Amino acid sequence: PMNNIFLYITRPEATDRDLIDGINCTPESAHDEFLFVKERFGKEDGRQYYHVIQSFAPEENVTPELAHEIALRFAKENFGDYEVLVATHTDKSHIHSHLVVNSVSCETGYKYHSDNENIERLRQASDRLCLEYSLSVVEPKAKSNKQMSAREYHSASRGESWKMQLIV
To answer: Is 48:76 a contact under the CB 8 Å cutoff?
Structure first.
């Protein structure tokens, strides 16, 4: 049930009340507000929410308040007409913020859809904000060439690989 994610991100042992905010919703009633929007637009099935985590390295010079400020800006800039509950956690060696985004827009009733392109767009938006605050970003891994299986290797060594013939 959707309520579990709200309970998880707002638990007192992970965060304090000053580090919990809502965008287009009130933290104390966010769960009910998410449900109301879904009912209002008749979109109660399928994906209920998106969970985004923005995390900082343990050695990063970021305070919980700054991490929370960045998360709020990220939420406003990327999920403008959706309800978002933002909670910044300080219970681990790395400060991190959880964003729970309603899958239904509170203004238009449109469902939010995400795919790999959108995930990349969100990562770039987060990186831009971090760089603006002089914080580090994770460099994307270079795409590595997939290793050949043993069967492919033996076929190639015998000159019988159709893949190698395409290359040549």
So the answer is: no
